[in-house]
Amino acid sequence: MTLPLYRYRNKGSWISFLGGFAVGSIVEYVCSWGQELVFGSRSWDYSGVPFNINGRICLLYSIFWGFLGILWIKSIYPWMAKLILKIPNCAGKIITWVLVIFLAVNGIVSSFAVYRWSERVDNVPASNSFWEYVDERFPDERMERIYENMVFD
Fold it and tell me: Residue 65 — φ and ψ, nearest 5°?
């Protein structure tokens, strides 16, 4: 939200609303489409909600994204930016890299776990010790707790 909305932060709230509406909806649609393409699954389905597009996004949640855009760029971001500027440059770089690495590893591990889960749903056995390890660490029960709305096609 920050990158597309930043240049309009001092403009009217309606611009922040429209930006949040658009950015949130596009990201939500692309994430849903990508997840279905890569994993053959969906974490949410708005098919039963009025004014939806392919069950991936709907007007109601797009409106929520709009209000979140206002809240983020007008209230939360300025406060966080002031807080971040108080962190010394060297420490800030270290913290940034630690967080980037953590998020990357978390995303990779989550992707492997969901991929393997989708294979187990299709009764595909683990092909090597790595996938056996993934099965042990991320059994179906754990994955169902983490991704309770996940549905495989």
Answer: -60, -40
In our burial notation (b when 16+ CB lie closer than 10 A, e otherwise), range 91-106 reads eeeeeeeeeeeeeeee
Domain boundary among 86, 105, 129: 86
30, 51, 86 - which closes a domain: 86
Domain count for the chain: 2
Question: Would the pLDDT of 104 be above 80?
Answer: yes
Distance from C-alpha of 81 to C-alpha of 2, rounded to nearest angstrom: 11
- Can you say whether residue 55 is alpha, beta or left, with left for phi > 0 and alpha for psi between -120 and 50 degrees? left
DSSP SS3 for 47: coil
pTM score, whole prediction: 0.78
